[in-house]
Amino acid sequence: MNLDRLIYDWNEEALPGNRPPQHIELNDETLRDGLQSPSVKTPTIEQKIELLHLMEKLGIHSADIGLPGAGPHVLEHVIALAKEMVTHKMKIVPNCAARTLKADITPIIEASQRAGIKIEACTFIGSSPIRQFAEGWSIDQLLKYTEDAVTYAVQNGLDVMFVTEDTTRAHPDDIKKLYQTAIRCGARRVCISDTVGHATQEGIHRIVTFMREIIDETGENVRIDWHGHNDRGLAVANALNAIQAGAHRIHGTGIGVGERVGNVQMDQLMVNLKLKKWIDNDLSMLPQYCKKVSDYTGIAIPWNYPIFGRDAFRTGTGVHAAAILKSLNKGDMELVDRVYSSVPAGMFGLEQVIEIGPLSGESNVIYWLKRRNIEPRDELVKKIFQAAKQSTTVLTDEQIYALCK
Hints:
- This protein is of the alpha/beta class.
- It has helices at residues 10-14, 45-57, 72-87, 102-115, 129-135, 139-155, 172-184, 201-218, 235-245, 266-275, 286-297, 318-329, 333-338, 362-371, 378-389, 397-404; strands spanning 25-28, 62-64, 93-99, 120-126, 160-165, 189-194, 223-228, 249-252, 314-315, 353-354.
- The longest helix is centred in the middle third of the chain and has 18 residues, at 201-218.
């Protein structure tokens, strides 16, 4: 059934034709920024390669594969990941983080040469007044670091994305000087970094607009990236706002792993972009991507995590179950999937799950039995229903099967 006539979409009616004109790109930071969380365990190189292939299957455009300036071990992982891209002729392209220092850029040059693939250098430097004060930096020092580092990278054949940390709390005059210096020296991407998750919708539109004005003054063809964190719980919403404001590429990590409360959740971002019809990627591998990121970093997926948490499509409430059961009786699985869900579980190979517990009605029991091809006889339904009402939690499958016997 076409559900369009059954769902009035206030989102579309509010902003008709609001798809941004620019091509939207995604940059996966799981293997670098994501691993800065103090709670993660570092994946093995084999696990990193597996995650890289999942990113490729999801249609993610680029991946930060490490900060090779951190030491020989990281450099070898970066080279192995870059070689994997070459060997398998992947569409996903590599980039690496670097401080605006030649010492950090030189290992990227080495990795690029040894792997036989161009690696974008993502050179970052602090920019906000509070950071400058804490570090004892002057703006002249920062400009000198920027000029030397970007020039060195470009002269050695690297594409450069210039990043200012804490951009969303930096002074406009400093931002303008830093970015225009980087662009003059050859940077062809600039990244607005919401390092401490400070930004709100209004601020994002102001700063992206300001960045576009900075670029226009240079006359160069420069793309804008957005790198956000989730300290206020706004990471995905902010990423969508950044796209609407004109950002070309959004950074994120699997299940939002990263420092403090983490980064933009790449999986949630992709789901929202798909539902808004801004991308057409095949997202059927997203459950596996999230599970592997969780397994390999040791970060558990919360039970109420959107879409990929245990309870995302699970209910034990009688009213909800009744509506789902009536949809099932109509023989329409698409209706079953959407009557109490804004996200279609079937898009990811998942399904609606009806549990039986103290808040359930008999509809929960009937649905559970029907989905398992068990005849919902009246006496059996009432037996299970009474057991549920006496329980403090939902019944396990084992408990229900025992009652069926």
